[in-house]
Amino acid sequence: TDPTQWTKEVAQAIALEEGITLTDAHWKVIDFLKKDFAAAGALPSMRRINKTGGIATKDLYELFPDGPLKKAARIAGLSKPTSCV
Fold it and tell me: What one-character DSSP code corresponds to residue 45?
């Protein structure tokens, strides 16, 4: 709940709760989310991740199944996307 307490170890623990073992590809997404969030003050959309981050939507769904943006944001220590209910 406090983004300032986020560490890579915390991210790994959250990922394990989600059934995900983080790879370099996961970290590429997480790093992009954190950098873009810091610059824009908001979580990027799937389209922005695809266009600006160079990460294909298909790859996002493979890396973070069943809600890639929500899961990736949670692991990155960011608030859930506004598009999520």
Answer: P
Which DSSP letter does residue 16 get?
H
**What is the distance between the alpha carbons of residues 29 and 42, in angstroms, rounded to a whole number?**
15
Distance CA 49, CA 54 (A): 7
Q: Give yes or no for a contact between 76 and 6, defined as CB atoms under 8 angstroms apart.
A: yes
Catalytically active residues are: 84
Residue-wise pLDDT for 49-81, tens only, equals: 999 999 999 999 999 999 899 999 999 999 876
Question: The whole model's pTM is what?
Answer: 0.89
On whether the CB atoms of residues 30 and 75 are closer than 8 A, the answer is yes
